[in-house]
Specification:
With 240 residues, the protein is of the alpha+beta class. The chain has one domain. Helices cover 40% and strands 16% of the residues. The chain is built from eight helices and seven strands, in the order αβαβααββαβαβαβα. A seven-stranded mixed beta sheet has the order 2-3-1-4-7-6-5, sandwiched between helices. α1 packs parallel to α8 and α5 crosses α8. The longest helix is centred in the C-terminal third of the chain and has 29 residues. It is globular, with a radius of gyration of 19 Å. The model has no long low-confidence stretch (mean pLDDT 93).
């Protein structure tokens, strides 16, 4: 059960209003066993990040390791080893990526991973989180993401290396370990989640999401006033 002292519905509302979000924030929790009353995912998806799309569309469910095995890279970042009969798929996928010039093999050891293999992964819209999330995913346009990063700085929980690239899924374990972190995403994630070319991600550790949401309101208000200030300066001082 989630911490009853934390109102995730109010936190989602704060984030949505302060940042003008068009997508719902997604709560992700890694647990050893599923929570009572939450349905298990049925069906198949090509990647773990595909479940982000389903949760943003207002579904709450949990997955097991086998649900993630169609994506060897995501299984790697989530510390969900492939079964023996599929163990070669990670090498094959990495081989394709390196052959195309997308990735260098020496980069692989530096890709963040979950410290422990989860028994289940629970996904939901933030306001409907059935357990306290380990990480909250926020997708938005760069100007909105900027406000969230500034809120994280104000809250004192921004990661020291605040921008990651491919694979997008590594940003979850990175955020849990380091703090609020942004991700430019990757082509696979954009295909599987319908993330627009004009959108980025910010990952927030679940334990910090209430603080960041509160600071986002202050930052949004400050940016509105600063925008007026800079517009006036440009009008007064720009000669071309």
């Amino acid at each position: 059960m989630p911490d009853r002292s934390i109102d995730y519905r109010a936190i989602e509302r704060q984030l949505t209003e302060a940042l003008g979000l068009q997508r719902r924030p997604v709560a992700v929790a890694f647990r050893s066993t599923p929570p009572a009353g939450i349905p298990k995912f049925t069906g198949t998806e090509p990647s773990g990040c595909s479940f982000w799309r389903l949760a943003a569309a207002e579904r709450t469910f949990y997955t097991v390791a086998a649900d993630h095995h169609n994506c060897p890279i995501g299984s790697y970042t989530h510390n969900m080893p492939l079964p023996p009969e599929r163990s070669g798929e990670l090498t094959q996928t990495l081989g394709l990526m390196t052959e195309l010039g997308y990735l260098k093999m020496e980069e692989v050891p530096g890709i963040p991973r979950l410290a422990q293999s989860p028994g289940v992964v629970i996904y939901s819209p933030l306001s409907d989180a059935p357990v306290d999330p380990d990480v909250v995913l926020v997708a938005g346009r760069p100007g909105r993401v900027m406000l969230l990063q500034e809120a994280a700085l104000r809250a004192g929980v921004a990661a020291l290396a605040p921008l990651l690239g491919r694979p997008t899924c590594m940003a979850l374990p990175a955020s849990i370990a380091q703090g609020v972190i942004a991700s430019t995403g990757c082509v696979g994630n954009r295909v599987y989640t319908d993330l627009g070319e004009d959108e980025l991600y910010v990952m927030i550790p679940g334990k910090d999401v209430a603080r960041v949401a509160a600071e986002a309101q202050t930052i949004a208000s400050a940016n509105l006033k600063l925008s007026e200030y800079h517009q006036a300066r440009r009008h007064a001082l720009a000669t071309e």
